[in-house]
Amino acid sequence: MRWRDHYTKGTLIFGHRGASAYAPMNTIPAFELAYQQGADGIELDVHLSKDGQLIVLHDFTVDHTTNGTGMANTMTLAELKQLDAGYKFGAQFQGTRIPTLDEVFEAVGGKLLINVEIKSITEDTDGVEQVTADCIRRHGLMSTVIVSSFNPLALQRFRSILPQVAIGYLYAPDYTFYPEVMDTLPHEALHPYHESIDLALVEKARQAEQVINTWTVNDPAQAVSLRAMGVQGIITDKPDVIRQALA
Ligand code: G3P
Ligand code: MG
Predict the structure, then answer these.
(1) What is the residue extent of each domain of the chain?
(2) Which atom belonging to ligand 1 lies closest to the Cα atom of 119?
(3) What number of helices (H) and strands (E) belong to the chain?
(4) Residue whose CB lies within 8 A of the most ligand 1 atoms, among 117, 167, 197, for a mutation test
(5) Which CATH class is domain 3-245?
(6) What is the pTM of this model?
(7) pLDDT per residue as tens digits for the range 38-55
């Protein structure tokens, strides 16, 4: 199945870090809630722990979302699992843990499309692409996962390891790395910041047979207008609001 065949049912809604307006970002409760709110998929961010385990976390440090401090890649999975990734969002989420990608795939991999964003800002790799590919393959989710990154070098490495999985190029006007790499790297999707979209981009993507998934769109009117322009995927913190707007 080609990635773009998922869109034949219409515009797809992806919960950004889950339904992160209502539950702690990048946690199982946020992903389950996105499903309950009618999302077609979720977006999440991955890093490697010190002991090479794939964890779902946005920042490079644990400071913002947990009760710990420090770089995630200097901590083992066992250490990361000690942290509370829920209580800062709300008392009812106290005790929520940072999930591994394996745990997310087990929980929702059978019912949601999953956009795995590889967080990487270096030219060299710590091996995250290989571990991500192994995880996708282990769960048999090659046709329902798309891997995105702001780092084309990470996409290039991932593509060479697991070419049958779709890739999406993430970018924003003031945030691009080695964009020339994408000129020679076939990719199934563009993941532009929503303000980077105009009709010319939509037409260019159409000719290249690429879909456009844009982020982060929480305003219902904006979602309607992006759909009218031909954007096929909306990544949002509020899947319920966008589902209603696009009904
Ligand atoms: O993948 C879309 C979006 O998540 C990219 O930015 O910082 O929210 O990971 P960020
Ligand atoms: Mg992200």
Answers:
(1) 3-245
(2) 9
(3) 8, 9
(4) 117
(5) alpha beta
(6) 0.98
(7) 999 999 999 999 999 999
